[in-house]
Amino acid sequence: GLPAALPALPLELTVLYNSLLFTAGASDSAIKGEAEGIRQGLLRVLEACGACGQDLGTEELWQKVLQEVTMEELQAPLHHLGALQAAWWLAAGRLGSVAGLFQLLSTAEDPERARCNGGQNKLLSLIKAWQVPAEEASLPLVQSAKDLKEILCTAAAFLQGLQELEAGNFPTALSLLQEAAGGFCSKKILAQIYTCLGCCAQRMGKPQTALQHLKRALQIDFQCLPALSHVAAVYHELGETDAELQALTLLYEALGKTPPAAASSSPCFLMQTELLVHTPVLTSLLRHHHPSEVKYLLAQRCLQDRRVADAVEHYLDFLSLLQEGLQQQVPLHGSSALPRIPEVFLEAASALEQAGRHQDAITMCEEVITRTTDLIPQVLRVEERLEQSECASPGAELAGGLLSQKKESLCCLAWRAAGYLHQGWAWAKLGKSKEAVTQFSRCLSDLLRVQLHGSGDKPTENLQPEVEVLQKIRLLSLIGRGTQFLELGRHKEALLDFQHSLQISPGDAAAASYLVQALWKLNRKQEAAAQWQKLYQRSPGEDGQQQGPFPLYLVSCLEQVMSTHSETLARSIQDYLRTAAQDTSS
């Protein structure tokens, strides 16, 4: 409350500098908002000089103070406070304001030094050009301005590197991040910078360089677990499954351990780079995976790579985590690696089925069927009109909600139908053809709930992926039921299913192959031979099964129907065609 006095201002500004540093260091969290204390300090300086600046913004206030206050004894305290202001602005992402402030600080000392060299980053050049004023023994600082300058350089390079990375300017981002890596920071921040360098190199199409940076991050700080998850992603991109699974296993084990207390090898500073760099892009790159997510990734990758026994183990471990209630701690949306829980159950059923544990697969699917039954309407209309007219009207928000609800219903229907589909194939593997037919029929009955309406032949574009999945499930179920009708000797019913399959997916190789078998068993050998010739004269690109991609939980069913080639039947048809040709020639 005392009036500002020029003789006391150097001490007053130094006390302000130290107190703000103590406040920032004690918070142990990122700096946010404005440093109101700095503004009040500047106003005190103007007051002592007989000037006023209450109506000025903080940037204009700094400009007025540095241009009008020329007393030599105030220059060092003002420069110290200016560096602290730059820290607050860097934390807020106000890089332009920081550049302007250092332009003023350097101009106040030496106009020539304020000019940055061509080709260099302007902000970094301005910070480096700033001459740190000498400290006075009578006015000690809790953190030297020289150290603060180094931290500002590192943070400025890091922040700009992240900005360029987000903008897709990868060479510039790489240069700035390398500049930051050579700066003044803790091991924790250095590991984060190398992680970002790895991500940048990966996006530049340089996976080996990315691995070098990411491994360097882990050497510096093994608790930088996001680097390990990025290593797994790079190995996945390279197709090195063994290395990817090893990285994921290490990540899962590390996440399950209590991290040791961080012992920083760098000097203890109140103002650190950690407090200045907190952007959404960095948060995204350094996102920590929940152990359940990593366990799911292990299961998924093993299933995709046909490591069935390992896949089963990982899926069952993951599902046990869910039963323990840990799913409430797992992010189920956004950047999470987890799909919807019913899909995980179906993938687990697929793994169990491939491992020969058919009864367990049936039980797993029953869980999905039971839980989705009440979520599916009796009739589900997919209308083109909703997309074309209602979504463009003033009630577009309502229409969007209806569309989202419809998609959710289609997803639930697909999960339930897929559950019946897997049960059908599981019963078939157990040699229970009647039970298999029952489950395939339930699947087909479920799919009759969907009614496609509209002026065109195709359903609304926004619903296309969901509808395609349902169509594929219908196709697989028809083929599956047809195969079981063949096993039961009900050849006419089998023929109808295979014909219906080809109506859904004309040219489908599996359906066409089974159709040949059904015709041959019905002694319609001429038709069977004609279909067989068509089938084996077709180019590989005409195979209807190559469409997709489809959910992972359907892959085993797709492979099941593709294994249809019968050497014995092929020889029989070839003999028939030779005999027919001889009869014709004679």
UniProtKB/TrEMBL annotation:
<dbReference type="InterPro" id="IPR019734">
    <property type="entry name" value="TPR_rpt"/>
</dbReference>
<feature type="domain" description="Bacterial transcriptional activator">
    <location>
        <begin position="458"/>
        <end position="538"/>
    </location>
</feature>
<dbReference type="InterPro" id="IPR039684">
    <property type="entry name" value="FANCG"/>
</dbReference>
<feature type="repeat" description="TPR">
    <location>
        <begin position="475"/>
        <end position="508"/>
    </location>
</feature>
<dbReference type="InterPro" id="IPR005158">
    <property type="entry name" value="BTAD"/>
</dbReference>
<keyword id="KW-0802">TPR repeat</keyword>
<dbReference type="GO" id="GO:0043240">
    <property type="term" value="C:Fanconi anaemia nuclear complex"/>
</dbReference>
<dbReference type="InterPro" id="IPR011990">
    <property type="entry name" value="TPR-like_helical_dom_sf"/>
</dbReference>
<protein>
    <submittedName>
        <fullName>FANCG protein</fullName>
    </submittedName>
</protein>
<dbReference type="GO" id="GO:0036297">
    <property type="term" value="P:interstrand cross-link repair"/>
</dbReference>
<dbReference type="Pfam" id="PF03704">
    <property type="entry name" value="BTAD"/>
</dbReference>
